[in-house]
Write a structure and sequence with these properties.
Belongs to the small GTPase superfamily. Rab family. With 177 residues, the protein is α/β, with parallel strands linked by helices. The chain contains six helices and six strands. The protein binds guanosine-5'-diphosphate (GDP). Guanosine-5'-diphosphate (GDP) binds next to α1.
Amino acid sequence: LESGPDKIDYVFKVVVIGDSAVGKTQLLSRFAKNEFCLDSKSTIGVEFQTRTVNIKSKVVKAQIWDTAGQERYRAVTSAYYRGALGAMLVYDVTKRQSFDHVARWVEELRAHADNSIVIALIGNKADLVDLRTVPTEDAVEFAENQGLYFFETSALSGENVDTAFHKLLEEIYSVIS
Ligand code: GDP
């Protein structure tokens, strides 16, 4: 690792999971580049982006992995989860089915990821107020039962995206330090 003012104290691997089209890729580019791309779909294959942030006066490089469409083919492999310290489990607040599948994604994490992985449940597309089908209370209850952090976000407006990632990274830091 580098030394001097740019030295990195930690690299945290975070995986983003959830059904197709819930906004995983957009959340990632909002956090990593502060961008929302209208046509961003890349080729199938695992990819990650990074952003370096300060967490409790440490320099933490968040290495955030995107399924890049593998979930469509139920092909998210254990290699994807290997070494992950955190997970963003995303559903779409306008698509009930994506929330109903969250329990399955939690099982997938418990099966393939490290036991101490920190999980944040993310209800994305909160900007689509009139199209909402998943009440906040349903997600709060699920998150409490499962011991997950919970945020509603909009990758489009940016609302709560940094807050959610920062909370996840802070909790990872407190788990490992
Ligand atoms: P992924 O398959 O989970 O990676 O989903 P994408 O990031 O490709 O997003 C799927 C679609 O939802 C795209 O058309 C995005 O532009 C749109 N989308 C993603 N996030 C948001 C959001 O926060 N608000 C709204 N209104 N649309 C979003």
